[in-house]
């Protein structure tokens, strides 16, 4: 599988080469509302002294991610991907309910989302055959610390359950897509961020506008991006199974 990350880190210490890292995905990768260089891929790349090609685009889906895939350097060693939320209308739905509307159910099934993941992952693998792909889950938004009908979460408990259901579909489809592909490693961010959702003591995510002062509404905070970068760094230090 080409240079593995641990080997690449060792080579960098010897000054031989730079690890080539590419980042793909939606706003949860891009980091809207955060300072330039504040998303997880930039933080991770800087800790690895890697050369980052950040191709992430806010609002992108697994259907239009092919324009990002086309930009992956052929010699990429490691590619991070966070996608699929917009295919389900996840953040769009949270925004709609926050604005007093009523978000529709996702327009595609879980199986269709899995198919889209499989297609995108295969394309990425074709574009950069020696690269390891880290499939990075979305941070949990509505964890156990949510208070419905509060400033941060201005909709009721039933709607909280609706959005949790969308998040669960997204997580299951992500996990299923990672299975059986030796070149894909899922980073279990959803589970690891349960106690850092909206309303928690240390939120890694914003709720409704104005709930924190960094990052966009319903998107990761600086602390959230740091946390994801830490998870990636810990994974990169491990030897592959
Ligand atoms: C960084 O990546 C870009 C895009 O692939 C490439 O043109 C450049 O040579 C790389 N730089 C280093 C130091 O590896």
From TrEMBL:
SUPFAM superfamilies: SGNH hydrolase. GO terms for molecular function: hydrolase activity, acting on ester bonds. One of its GO terms (biological process) is lipid metabolic process. Residues 24-225 form the SGNH hydrolase-type esterase domain. InterPro entries: SEST-like, SGNH_hydro, SGNH_hydro_sf. The keyword Metal-binding does not apply. Keywords: Hydrolase, Signal. Residues 1-18 form the signal peptide. It comes from the Eukaryota. Gene3D superfamilies: SGNH hydrolase. This is SGNH hydrolase. It comes from Eremomyces bilateralis CBS 781.70.
């Amino acid at each position: 599988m080409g240079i593995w990350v641990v080997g690449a880190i060792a080579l960098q210490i010897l000054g031989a080469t730079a690890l080539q890292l590419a980042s793909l995905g939606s706003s949860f990768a891009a980091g809207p509302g955060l300072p330039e260089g504040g998303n997880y891929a930039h933080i991770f790349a800087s800790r690895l002294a890697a050369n980052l090609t950040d191709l992430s685009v806010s609002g992108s889906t697994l259907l239009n991610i092919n324009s990002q895939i086309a930009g992956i350097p052929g010699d990429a060693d490691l590619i991070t991907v966070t996608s699929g939320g917009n295919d389900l209308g996840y953040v769009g739905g949270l925004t709609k309910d926050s604005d007093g509307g009523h978000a529709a159910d996702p327009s595609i099934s879980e199986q269709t989302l899995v198919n889209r993941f499989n297609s995108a992952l295969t394309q990425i693998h074709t574009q950069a055959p020696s690269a390891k792909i880290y499939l990075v889950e979305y941070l949990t938004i509505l964890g156990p610390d949510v208070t419905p009908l509060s400033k941060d979460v201005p909709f009721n408990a039933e709607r909280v359950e609706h959005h949790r259901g969308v998040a669960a579909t997204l997580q299951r489809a992500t996990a299923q897509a990672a299975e059986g592909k030796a070149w894909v490693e899922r980073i279990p961010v959803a589970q690891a961020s349960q106690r850092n959702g909206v309303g928690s003591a240390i939120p890694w995510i914003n709720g409704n506008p104005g709930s924190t002062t960094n990052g966009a509404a319903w998107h990761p905070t600086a602390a959230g991006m740091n946390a994801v970068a830490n998870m990636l760094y810990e994974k990169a230090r491990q030897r592959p199974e």
